[in-house]
Amino acid sequence: MLLIRHGQPGHEKPGVVLDGHHYDVSDFAEDYDERFFATDGLRRLAAFVDVQRELLLPVPATQRLGPPVARPSKIVCAGLNYTDHAQEMGLPLPTEPVLFLKAPSALTGPNDAIILPKNSVKTDWEVELAVVIRKRAAYVDEADALNYVAGYVLLNDVSERAYQLERGGTWDKGKGCDTFAPLGPWLVTPDELADPANLRLWLKVNGETYQSGSTANLIFGVAYLISYISQFMTLLPGDIISTGTPAGVGSGLKPPRFLAPGDVVELGITGLGVARQTVRSF
């Protein structure tokens, strides 16, 4: 299945994608949140859609899409998880996953604006494959880790590099600003995705391609990340893990290139759709 949430911010309704068209499933009466995933919601939703398919109402093409997952308890990210990205940043390859958190309040829809924080001078882009957790995960074995996956989704790990790297402390302060986690357009269940370990991902700014890579080049794959993270924190249903970005970020260019008001960022991953965000000042 492909899951969407549609409507105005804070008032999104659940939906699904069928044969390339968006349909409302408000009558299912559940949002795609922690409770939904924890109570076998994907199976129950599939059964609902199977019975009600001919009665589902279409969602207008002009309707805003929200993030396909309602407010998760946490967004856990892996940094420097592609060899070429670590090299462009001038950093050694990690021997263990580099982890940081993005604030859930950073979550926004796939086509919503990126709002530059006050005094931002180095806001950057990062196309990433993200994973949504299906059930409570603590001390998970790598061999069993993919059984914890509810689905896969496109994420832009927007980053303010001056906040991240020049203001002291951890990376988090440059990662969790409002609108810094555009998610979607849809959540794709594992049965709909041929091979998450071999997906093309790309990103353009104003029509120029800056990032073009493959998840085949992840240093630490999805199963390893789930297992590894679960050794340090319990992952709850609906939590998001973002797996890192390939080379081509603005801070890795010579000279660096950062986002400015009016820029248009387009990004996509094979099977996970395309997102488009316009950059605005606070």
Q: What do these coordinates show?
A:
This protein folds into two domains: 2-63, no CATH class; 66-281, Fumarylacetoacetase-like, C-terminal domain (Fumarylacetoacetate hydrolase, domain 2). It contains five helices and 20 strands. The chain has helices spanning 34-38, 41-52, 83-88, 161-165, 222-229; strands spanning 2-6, 13-18, 21-24, 57-58, 65-66, 75-79, 98-102, 107-108, 114-116, 123-124, 127-133, 149-156, 159-160, 181-182, 187-188, 200-205, 208-214, 240-242, 264-269, 273-281. A hairpin with a 2-residue loop joins β16 (200-205) and β17 (208-214).
CATH superfamily of the largest domain, by name, is Fumarylacetoacetase-like, C-terminal domain
Please count the beta strands (DSSP E, at least 2 residues each). 20
Instruction: Tell me the fraction of residues in β-strands, as a range.
Output: 25-35%
- The share of residues in helices is 10-25%
- CATH topology call of the largest domain: Fumarylacetoacetate hydrolase, domain 2
Radius of gyration: 18 Å
* Alpha plus pi helix count: 5
Low-confidence stretches: none
Number of domains: 2
Write the H/E string, N to C.
EEEHHEEEHEEEEEEEHEEEEHEEE
- Gap from first CA to last CA: 36 Å
Rounded mean pLDDT is 97
Q: Pairing-aware structural class of the strands and helices?
A: alpha+beta
Just give the CATH class of the largest domain: Alpha Beta
CATH architectural type of the largest domain: Alpha-Beta Complex
Shape: globular
Main sheet: strands, sense, barrel? 6 strands, antiparallel
